[in-house]
Design a protein that fits this description.
Strand order of the largest sheet: 1-4-3-5-7
Order of helices and strands: EEEEEEEEEEE
Number of helices: 0
Helix content: under 10%
Radius of gyration: 14 Å
Largest sheet: 5 strands, mixed, barrel
């Protein structure tokens, strides 16, 4: 079990929930029961926040950033710096938000190539990028 906040960024607001499944840092989560979260699976999910604990198994406490800066786990679709708004996708990952396809904005990616370790101005699947959690804004 690991419930440290080693991945928490200064200025973030986190709450503790119970993991309803295995969760890892950067995943977007939704409620599955009162006080219990699981990974989001689609842009239509009601996003709660982003996992910032090292990891958690089902039934363990997990720290979720519900507002402010956090690390986001990027999905298979590249997130370019020109369109930084993101929404949830399969496995709790984040992909670009588009007015045509996604209904919920979950965050804005703010860190790219200038982050420690360098990188490009887009993301790849599995990248952790700095972003700002935007509490589930529904766009119809």
């Amino acid at each position: 079990m690991s419930t440290s906040l080693q991945f928490a960024l200064p200025g973030s607001f986190a709450q503790t929930y119970t993991a309803g499944a295995t969760l890892t840092v950067g995943q977007g989560v939704k409620l599955s029961a009162l006080g219990t979260v699981i990974a989001c699976t689609a842009a239509t999910d009601v996003f709660v926040g982003v996992v910032q604990s090292d990891s958690a198994l089902s039934g363990e406490p997990v720290s979720i950033v519900v507002s402010g800066p956090a690390l986001f786990l990027c999905g298979a679709t590249a997130i370019p710096y020109t369109t930084p708004l993101v929404t949830c996708a399969t496995g709790g990952t984040f992909v670009p938000w588009t007015a045509a396809g996604s209904r919920r904005q979950c965050g804005a990616i703010i860190g790219y190539g200038g982050e420690p370790g360098g990188g490009s101005l887009t993301t790849a699947a599995g990248d952790l990028r700095t972003g700002i959690v935007i509490p589930s804004i529904l766009v119809d």
